[in-house]
Design goal:
4-stranded mixed beta sheet, 8 helices, 2 domains, Glutaredoxin, 8 strands, 4-stranded parallel beta sheet, Rossmann fold
């Protein structure tokens, strides 16, 4: 019978609003025998992975992935752990956070190897910068901004966004995930335009109510 692991390792990335190569993060996690999480903008969240670890009662080691060092990632990762402890009944889980990747001697060596290899000549086409598709505003009557900052993500913004997408799938609505919108204690937050209405403390259930009001607004404007 195999021995129980001494700890569960979770690689934590911080994607940009435009996304992250989740396949690469997943592949790296698999290569080192770890799990993975997103600080914001995506899932699984840090809270999701801490919940998973708590069920197995195995200590957790969180590894912030950023090159060069991203103090925002490290700061908010620590805050996410603190919030998880405050909002969950299991306070006994041991959670440790490593230094960033640039704290290791191997990172500079890896960069030097890339430099020495010389790379490949870039032959990418410039057409993407000229594509007419990037000059067209998508047809919509309502623009929905879903905050996917670290706190709103921890509070359940992913579930809120999925509920809105499902409810408004066939409606003339443009759905966008945003970075932090700042009044984080009111999260998950959604802002709808052109009315400029802020919807605070949403859940998947009351997000459906917001979607219903959006549909009613669209119907009133088309009468």
């Amino acid at each position: 019978m195999s021995a129980e692991p001494e700890s569960q390792v979770v690689l934590v990335a911080r994607p940009t609003p435009s996304g992250v190569d989740e396949r690469s993060v997943r592949s790296l996690a698999e290569a080192v025998g770890a799990r993975w999480a997103m600080l914001d903008q995506g899932e699984p969240s840090v809270h999701d992975e801490l919940d998973h670890a708590a069920r197995s009662c195995v200590p957790v080691v969180l590894v912030p992935l950023a090159v060069p060092r991203d103090r925002y990632l490290e700061t908010w990762l620590a805050r996410a752990v603190a919030n998880w402890r405050e909002t969950r009944s299991n306070h006994e889980l041991e959670v440790r956070v490593t230094d960033g990747l640039d704290a290791t001697d191997g990172l500079a060596g890896a960069v030097r190897e890339l430099i020495a290899a010389g790379g490949r000549e870039s032959r990418a086409s410039p057409r993407a910068f000229r594509s007419p598709e990037w000059s067209e505003i998508p047809e919509h009557q309502v623009h929905v901004m879903v905050c996917r900052g670290p706190r709103c993500t921890a509070h359940g913004a992913g579930e809120v966004q999925r509920a809105l997408v499902l409810e408004l799938l066939d409606s003339p609505v443009l759905m966008s995930a945003s970075g932090c919108l700042t009044p984080c204690n009111l999260g998950p937050l959604v802002v709808t335009y052109p009315d400029g209405t802020w919807h605070a403390n949403l859940t998947a259930d009351n997000a459906r109510e917001v979607a219903q009001r959006i549909r009613e607004t669209i119907n009133d404007n088309t009468l």
